[in-house]
Structures are given as structure tokens and as C-alpha cells.
TrEMBL record, chain A:
<dbReference type="Pfam" id="PF00355">
    <property type="entry name" value="Rieske"/>
</dbReference>
<keyword id="KW-0411">Iron-sulfur</keyword>
<dbReference type="InterPro" id="IPR017941">
    <property type="entry name" value="Rieske_2Fe-2S"/>
</dbReference>
<keyword id="KW-0479">Metal-binding</keyword>
<protein>
    <submittedName>
        <fullName>Nitrite reductase (NADH) small subunit</fullName>
        <ecNumber>1.7.1.15</ecNumber>
    </submittedName>
</protein>
<keyword id="KW-0560">Oxidoreductase</keyword>
<keyword id="KW-0001">2Fe-2S</keyword>
<dbReference type="GO" id="GO:0106316">
    <property type="term" value="F:nitrite reductase (NADH) activity"/>
</dbReference>
<keyword id="KW-0408">Iron</keyword>
TrEMBL record, chain B:
<dbReference type="GO" id="GO:0106316">
    <property type="term" value="F:nitrite reductase (NADH) activity"/>
</dbReference>
<dbReference type="InterPro" id="IPR006066">
    <property type="entry name" value="NO2/SO3_Rdtase_FeS/sirohaem_BS"/>
</dbReference>
<comment type="pathway">
    <text>Nitrogen metabolism; nitrate reduction (assimilation).</text>
</comment>
<keyword id="KW-0349">Heme</keyword>
<feature type="domain" description="Nitrite/sulphite reductase 4Fe-4S">
    <location>
        <begin position="630"/>
        <end position="765"/>
    </location>
</feature>
<keyword id="KW-0411">Iron-sulfur</keyword>
<feature type="domain" description="Nitrite/Sulfite reductase ferredoxin-like">
    <location>
        <begin position="559"/>
        <end position="622"/>
    </location>
</feature>
<keyword id="KW-0883">Thioether bond</keyword>
<dbReference type="InterPro" id="IPR023753">
    <property type="entry name" value="FAD/NAD-binding_dom"/>
</dbReference>
Length: 97, 840
């Protein structure tokens, strides 16, 4: 399932996409890699698509909880995030659970 | 060429020794190989009782996971058991058939559960009867948890520390537990009889049965344990037995390899075995001056000494004074030194209140504390520990050693704070949580803050957090060099960082990471600070990268707890007009703004605006941004001033408007709040602002700096009194620029001014002692000229999807709708019609 063009997400930022009744936060790393997680922070529902990221972590904008971008593991004592499968195919973000 | 360091063992002592070696630059001296019996990384055995009770997840007790070995170039071979040391050939043989040569060998084989001689406990093949377990490893703990869920009655053999912890943990799985203790009172190693009796009361109150003077002689059951038989013939039926009757050093390897072994492997003050200067032993398997230690503090000391020796220093280990302070099955227990008087003239002061489970005793010889026991009330333990360790003078009234009498200390010291004291009020972090983070391996203040989130809210608790971490870590405290960095991801203080950025002409955040971060690695936590710094340094050349901004700075509004934003139109000096009010009212109505509120800075806040509505709202408002977000110059609060106020001495409103016009939108290390008051009555509260201006008699203006009335309260310092409003603009601009160039990231002026010193700041910005005033003015002017209203991005988004919603389609905390008519009880939830999430 195609979510949209990769160019919709500037490198280093995230955007929210709704697919199959749920909202995903999809991030485009500076390396070009795509990462996706559920859009709500498990701590207090913060909008994770608005998070700040680097190559390794994602930081919730509300209370600055952090997760590992590769594993979804929490680095600040909150529940882990489910890693959702997305990849780039011909310039498009493809949801591939 | 590097020497080969082989470590037999991968437990706490082994791990700590290697950590200490690495810290001393040992990676350059040694190729390190570690052998572990268990198929895991290095974990904190002390925490197993927490895993057993379910308070801690297994993953939470690892000190070093497998990646640590890889990152530090250590070869971990596990599970491989070393079966023989050939100290003549300098080789260790493993049970996997391997032979590994060494130049230096460290034996850290630890200890194992001691299984007292009991009939029927071992099967013919030497393994334990089913249902009988030690309590020593992750595997033991997993098995105990598994069996506890299947069985109903457990017996714990041993009423020492470990036994009581095991009993408490088992109980949490719903098993009925009975503790069998061979001695006449609990924890007889650490407590005297009366102290043990008090502990017994508390343990029994938890619902754990305890049987004292109960020597177990046999276990019954053919395939699976069915009971324990005591020396007096009593049979106690049970289906699970946990043996916690002490530990024995693992010395088989040393014995069969020909080393001197008594209760442990005999070592000298350098932790070297007495038989071979190239073979060392450390931890619970080592015996030093006749002592074998089973507590963590002495083992850490040994690890430090050994690491120093191996890396070339002359450290010596002279033994440890053993003190314990812990919670046993939920009861506070502390002990140090001897537990009972030994000589006729030893003073022995005792307080006992068995019903409340409180017992305290101290033993004094020649005016020195030589022993103390506390059960149930450990408030005085910090002082007692210090008196014991350092031989502090003792109070004439000995009862003062047991209780605080009369005049209380000015403030409770860190050690006297109860564990459940909430230290960080923003994130609800208790003293206990901080102490736990230290115990789990965080040894620097930033590490503890990252791990617990303490101090990550308003930051006002940082100094207390620091004190607690220092206290909890003791000698283990490490200073994080990053504390002096401008941002955590680049190992440079601000002046060096600015020099490097200037010399290498780095215009973007990613360029700074590429050039100056270790390995060129990005660090999200550093991005905002770097963005702000680069903007300050290169007002024209700065290359904006969107990911260098926090969400507030990406959409120029303030994110709220439900993911919506608040919008504050500019209202310079707090002055508005009929047209502006009407426009704001129309826009609020059109976009169904859930709440309209005046801010602390005298501006109108439109709260609860969905991100995707921001551009349209800005267009409809057609006003500039009011800067209620970001680390930047905020608003100027003003009083009425001389035009209307009968006390007014100066036109505070006009000056406030002028200041806000000049400095609008300027980025700074922390937010900057200002105020102008028309007379010393200070209705605009100028004395508690980052920059505060007060009109005084004679048409003059006082300028205050470094004030705050937020999480920190500080009265500003009078910088200078000037004659004209123009001078106010010049001096405050010069101070602002000096602050922008010299403050650390997120350092507010209330910290910056005392750090630099008022006199120094006055020299620079008023007296121009360093001749840099003109340059500061020029750079400020350049910044002022570069101003562009960020809300213009509403018409032309900076990046695609800049204002696309990020809200998920799930229930989030609802922000209440209020209007002026509703009192506290009259709040209503947001109606569906105004829900910014637009549920489908």
C-alpha cells in the first residue's frame, strides 16, 4: 500500500499517515532510510510525527521521552514502540507490515 | 605490542574490573578476552531479588549488554567454562576444547550458593532434587518464578539477607512461604539478637512464617521435593525449596591449577595471587588478609585497585570496612562494625520498640563509634556511617546518635530524605528512583537525569538531583565531561565550538555534526542549541535545516499537551486596539478556538488550534507572531506609565513598545522575558525579569538584569541607571548580544549573570572595558535587520506538509473548554464539533 511520495517528508523530519484505521508516524532519516511507528506516544499520547530525530533516536515533543529508531526500545522508561514496516519503492513510501 | 589480558569470569567483579581498566586507557595496553559461564552479558546479581519479586524486568539488570563488549573490542566467550590454568605455559583451557594464551590473567569466578549437607538433596548424578534451587543466577531466578506459579508452599532455608529477599519475592507470586533459619535470630551476621527480633516482628507482619533455631537435615521426595525435615524431627511439607544459606567462593579452578586457596584464592595487597605475579583474583572468589567479601562496595574497591595495578599505577588494597544499608523484605536495615560489645568498658546504647519494629544500638569504644545496628528506622544512619568511617567526634549525649534532639538542622540532608520524597515535581521522580538509577549503573548526573527524566521539566530540581546522585554514587561518582560542552553531542565548550565553527565556516547544523561530532554522528538533543548558536553567529549565512528545530520553531506556535497549538498575535508592549481585538474575536469564532486566555506576558492566547489550521488563522489574523514559543526574546510587559497613571514617572508603554519592536524574534540561549515599569511601584514586575527597566525620578531609567519569577525566583541586579530611553535600548541590546554569545545553551540570565558576575558584565556592556561594545552593538544591529515575521511561512510553507496534522486517531487527553462564566467546577470536555482531530 502506497502512503505517498517520499519527498513529502523532508530529511530529518516525520509526517503522519493514516492507513488501515491507524495513524503512523513515518520518519525520513538523513541517510534516506524510512522508519515508522504508531503516531501516539505511549506515555501521554504525544504526536510522535512532530518528534525530533537524529540517526538513532526519536524524541517525543511533549515530554522529551526517547526511543531507539531501529528497535523502538524506550530509552527513558516508557513502553517500547512497535516498529512498523515501511520502505521506499520508486520514490513512494510503501506500507509493508 | 598489546599484552593479552584474559579474565576468567563475567560477573560483577569481572565486568567492573574491565570497565575500570578501559577507563584508565587499558584498551591501548591489552587485548581483552573474557570467559563467562553463563550465556549472558554482565548483570547486576543484587537485582535478582527484584526480578524475582517482579519489580524489575530481567532486561533491566544488565550492566553491560553484548554490544558493550563489541564496542570496546572485548572478546566475550560464553558460555565457556575454564577448566584449568596452566600457569607455566600461561594458557587457560576451556570446556569447549579451547586453549587460550595469556600474559596477564584475572580470576573472577565469584561464588555459588552453599547447599548445606542435607539428606536427599542431591540425586545420584549430583544434580539437585527437582523443586530444590539455589538463588544465585538469572537461570535460578527464572526457574524459581516458574515453579512459584505452579506451587503453593515454599520453604526458604536461610534467614539472612538473601533468604529474606527470596522469601519476599516468592510471596509476591502468591506462594505461602516459611523461612527456616538455623541461628537464634534473623540476619545474625549483621544484627544482634534484639535487632534480629525486631526484624522478625516486621517480617512476620508481612505474612512470612519464620522458624528460628531450625536446622534442616533432610529433604523428602523421590522425583520432586515434598518437604524438609528438621534436626528435631519436625517435617515441614512443601513443594518448593529455595536454599539461601550463604555462599562459597568458586575456587575449584584455582585449587586444581595449584594456587593457594583457603576460604578463597589468597591474594596480596595488589590483588595478585601469592603464587604467581601474573595471575590476579578479584571479587567474591578472592581472600585478602583473611577476609572474603560478599558485598558489592569492597568488590568495587578491589576492582579499582586491580585496574590501577594492571594499567601501571601503584594502588594497594588494604581491605574494606563493611557497612550495610539496605531494605530487607521491605524493612530498612543498616549495620556497621561489631554487633555486640566485646569489652567491659565498651559503651552500649540501645533503643528498642519491638511492636513498631524499631531497634537501634550503637557501640562506642574510646569515644569512637565501632558498631551500630538500625532496624526499621534508619534516619540517623548517614551520620553513623560517617562517624564509623571517619571517626567523627560523637555527641556528649549518646542518645543523640540514635535520635535528632531538639533543634533541627537547617534543612534535611540528602541522606535523611525518605526514599519516597518527590524530587522532580515536573516528572514525579522520587529520591528512591534516583538512587535506583545510580545503583543500576548511572554514575553521572546527566546519565541519571536521562534515565529517570528528573530535572528534565522546569529544571529547578537539578541541584538537589546532583546532591542525591553524589550521595548515592559516593566514590563511584563520575563527572560527565559533557557538562562543560555547549551541547551534549559536540565535545567542545562554547568558546572552542564558536572558534571551530568560524574557522571552518560551518553554516548548518549538519555541517557542524559532520565536522565536529565524534564520528560525525548526529545528536537530536544538540540540534536546537546548534541552530540557535548558528543563527546568532551567522545572521545572514545560516543555512536553515528543518530538523534542527523543535516542533514549536517549525510551525511557530506553542505545542500543547493534546498536540494542538496555541497562537499569540503580536501586541507590542501589551497595547492593543479595537480593530485588533475585533479581528482576534472573529478569528477565534471562525476557528472555534476552545479557549481564549490572557498570557502571563499580557498577550491574548488562542489555545487548542490544530496544526493544519495555523496558516489559515495567521492569514485571517494578518498580524505578526507574538513570540510565545521558542528560546527567544519574548514579550515586554508594561504598566500604564506616565500617560494615565497618577504615579507614573516615565512612559513605560512607549518604551516597552520600542523594545519589543527592536528585539522581536531574536533567538537566544534561553527565553528572555522583559518588562518596563513607569515608576518604582513596579506594577510590571520588572525586578523579576531577564531584563527589567524601571523609571525613576528625574527622567532616568534603571536597568535590571538576571531576574526571574518562574521555577527560580531571583531579584534582578541593577546593571546601570541611564538618562534616556535610547540608552535603555542600546545597553539592553548590548547585554542581550553578550548573553547570546556567551551563555550556555538553555542557560537563563538568572544563572548566566551570577556565573559571569555582575561587575564583569557591567565592565563589558557599560564601561566597555574590553573595547567590544561597538562590535556587540553591530552584531545586534545585523540581527535586528535580519528579522522576518515567521508567520509569513503560513502563505508559503517552508517544507512540504509543514502544517500536516500529526495527531493520531485515538483518544488523547481532552483539553477542557472554559469560558469566563464557568467556575472551577464548570469545565466541560471539548465537544465533538470542536475536536481538532476531526474524527471520521
Amino acid at each position: 500500500m502506497i502512503l505517498g511520495p517520499v519527498d513529502e517528508i523532508p530529511p530529518g523530519e516525520g509526517r503522519a499517515y493514516t492507513v488501515q484505521g491507524r495513524t503512523l508516524a513515518v520518519f525520513r532519516l538523513r541517510s534516506g532510510a524510512l522508519k515508522a511507528f504508531p503516531a501516539a506516544c505511549p506515555h501521554s499520547g504525544g504526536p510522535l510525527a512532530d518528534a525530533q530525530i537524529d540517526e538513532n533516536v526519536l524524541i517525543c515533543p511533549l515530554h522529551l521521552n526517547t526511543w531507539d529508531l531501529t528497535t523502538g526500545c524506550s530509552r527513558s522508561g516508557q513502553p517500547d514502540l512497535e516498529v512498523i514496516g515501511v520502505r521506499e519503492v520508486a520514490g513512494q513510501i510503501v506500507f509493508s507490515p | 605490542m598489546k599484552r593479552r589480558l584474559v579474565v576468567v569470569g563475567n560477573g560483577m567483579a569481572a565486568g567492573r574490573t574491565v570497565e575500570e581498566i578501559l577507563e584508565r586507557g587499558g584498551a591501548d595496553q591489552f587485548d581483552i578476552t573474557m570467559f563467562g559461564d553463563e550465556p549472558y552479558g554482565n548483570y547486576n546479581r543484587i537485582m535478582l531479588s527484584h526480578v524475582l519479586s517482579g519489580e524489575e524486568d530481567e532486561s533491566g539488570i544488565f550492566l553491560n549488554d553484548l554490544s558493550w563488549y563489541e564496542e570496546n573490542g572485548i572478546t566475550l566467550r560464553a558460555p565457556v567454562r575454564i577448566t584449568r590454568i596452566d600457569r607455566f605455559a600461561k594458557v587457560v583451557d576451556g570446556d569447549d576444547g579451547s586453549s587460550t594464551p595469556y600474559d596477564v590473567l584475572v580470576v573472577a569466578t565469584g561464588s555459588r550458593s552453599f547447599i548445606p549437607p542435607m539428606e536427599g538433596v542431591f540425586r545420584p548424578d549430583g544434580s539437585l532434587l527437582d523443586g530444590v534451587l539455589g538463588f544465585r543466577s538469572i537461570d535460578d531466578t527464572r526457574e524459581i518464578v516458574r515453579l512459584a506459579r505452579l506451587h503453593e508452599k515454599a520453604v526458604v532455608i536461610g534467614g539472612g539477607l538473601l533468604g529474606l529477599e527470596a522469601a519476599r519475592g516468592l510471596q509476591s507470586h502468591g506462594v505461602h512461604v516459611e523461612v527456616l533459619h538455623a541461628a537464634g535470630h534473623l540476619m545474625n551476621q549483621q544484627l544482634d539478637a534484639a535487632g534480629g527480633a525486631c526484624l522478625l516482628t516486621s517480617v512476620e507482619a508481612l505474612g512470612i512464617d519464620v522458624r528460628l533455631n531450625a536446622r534442616s537435615t533432610a529433604v523428602t521426595g523421590d522425583d520432586h521435593v515434598t518437604g524438609v525435615i528438621l534436626k528435631d524431627g519436625t517435617e515441614i511439607p512443601c513443594d518448593l525449596v529455595v536454599v539461601a544459606a550463604g555462599i562459597r567462593a568458586n575456587t575449584d579452578l584455582a585449587v586444581t591449577s595449584g594456587f593457594s586457596v583457603e576460604r578463597g584464592i589468597v591474594v596480596d595487597d595488589s590483588m595478585a595471587t601469592v603464587d604467581d605475579p601474573d595471575v590476579f583474583a578479584v571479587g567474591e572468589c578472592a581472600q585478602h588478609r583473611g577476609e572474603v567479601y560478599g558485598l558489592v562496595a569492597p568488590i568495587w574497591e578491589q576492582a579499582r585497585v586491580l585496574a590501577s595495578r594492571l594499567t601501571g599505577s601503584d594502588a594497594e588494597y588494604h581491605g574494606s570496612r563493611v557497612t550495610t544499608k539496605l531494605k530487607v523484605a521491605g524493612v530498612d536495615v543498616a549495620s556497621m562494625g561489631i554487633t555486640a560489645p566485646e569489652r567491659d568498658d565498651d559503651e552500649f546504647v540501645v533503643f528498642s520498640e519491638p511492636r513498631r519494629g524499631v531497634y537501634k544500638s550503637v557501640i562506642i569504644r574510646d569515644d569512637r563509634l565501632i558498631g551500630a545496628t538500625c532496624v526499621g528506622d534508619v534516619k540517623k544512619v548517614a551520620f553513623l556511617l560517617q562517624a564509623f568511617d571517619r571517626g567523627l567526634p560523637l555527641p556528649e549525649e549518646r542518645v543523640g546518635l540514635l535520635f535528632d534532639l531538639g533543634t533541627a538542622a537547617a534543612e534535611p540532608s540528602v541522606d535523611e530524605l525518605p526514599d519516597d520524597t518527590q524530587v522532580c515535581n515536573c516528572n514525579g521522580v522520587s529520591k528512591g528512583a534516583l538512587v535506583k538509577a545510580v545503583a543500576d549503573g548511572c554514575k553521572t548526573v546527566p546519565a541519571v537525569m536521562d534515565c529517570t527524566r528528573a530535572g528534565k521539566g522546569c529544571g529547578s530540581c537539578k541541584s538537589l538531583v546532583t546532591k542525591i546522585v553524589e550521595w548515592a554514587a559516593g566514590d563511584d561518582m563520575r563527572v560527565d565531561p559533557a557538562e562543560h560542552y555547549y551541547v551534549p553531542g559536540i565535545p567542545l565548550a562554547k568558546p572552542e565550538l564558536m572558534t571551530a565553527i568560524t574557522e571552518q565556516r560551518l553554516y548548518s547544523v549538519s555541517a557542524v555534526f559532520a565536522a565536529l561530532a565524534p564520528g560525525g554522528t548526529e545528536d537530536a538533543k544538540s540540534k536546537m542549541g546548534l541552530t540557535s548558536l548558528l543563527r546568532t553567529m551567522w545572521p545572514q549565512e545560516f543555512v536553515d535545516e528543518r530538523d534542527g528545530r523543535f516542533i514549536n520553531d517549525r510551525v511557530h506556535a506553542n505545542i500543547q499537551r493534546d498536540g494542538t497549538f496555541s497562537v499569540v498575535p503580536q501586541m507590542k508592549g501589551g497595547v492593543t486596539s479595537v480593530e485588533q481585538l475585533r479581528t482576534i474575536a472573529d478569528v477565534a469564532e471562525k476557528y472555534r478556538v476552545p479557549m481564549i486566555k490572557l498570557t502571563g506576558g499580557q498577550r491574548i492566547d488562542l489555545l487548542g488550534v490544530p496544526k493544519e489550521d495555523l496558516p489559515k488563522m495567521w492569514a485571517d489574523l494578518d498580524m505578526p507572531s507574538g513570540y510565545a514559543y521558542g528560546k527567544s526574546f519574548r514579550t515586554v510587559k508594561t504598566c500604564v506609565g506616565s500617560d494615565f497613571c497618577r504615579f507614573g514617572l516615565g512612559d513605560s508603554t512607549a518604551l516597552g513598545v520600542a523594545i519589543e519592536t527592536r528585539f522581536q524574534g531574536i533567538e537566544s540561549p534561553g527565553k528572555v522575558k522583559m518588562a518596563v515599569s513607569g515608576c518604582p511601584r513596579n506594577c510590571a514586575e520588572s525586578l523579576v525579569k531577564d531584563i527589567g527597566v524601571v523609571a525613576v525620578e528625574g527622567g532616568r531609567w534603571e536597568i535590571y538584569i538576571g531576574g526571574a519569577a518562574g521555577a527560580h525566583i531571583r531579584k534582578g541586579d541593577l546593571l546601570v541607571t541611564v538618562d534616556t530611553p535610547e540608552e535603555v535600548l542600546t545597553i539592553s541590546g548590548r547585554f542581550l548580544q553578550y548573553y547570546r554569545e556567551n551563555a550556555k545553551w538553555l542557560e537563563r540570565t538568572y544563572a548566566f549573570v551570577p556565573r559571569i558576575g555582575l561587575e564583569r558584565i557591567r565592565d563589558v556592556v557599560v564601561a566597555d572595558s574590553d573595547g567590544m561594545a561597538a562590535d556587540l552593538d553591530a552584531r545586534m544591529q545585523q540581527t535586528v535587520e535580519g528579522y522576518r515575521d515567521p508567520w509569513k511561512e503560513g502563505r508559503e510553507p517552508a517544507v512540504p506538509g509543514q502544517f500536516r496534522t500529526a495527531l493520531p486517531l485515538i483518544s488523547l487527553p481532552q483539553v477542557p473548554v472554559r469560558d469566563g462564566s464557568t467556575a472551577l467546577g464548570g469545565r466541560a470536555g471539548r465537544s465533538v464539533a470542536t475536536d481538532p482531530r476531526r474524527l471520521p
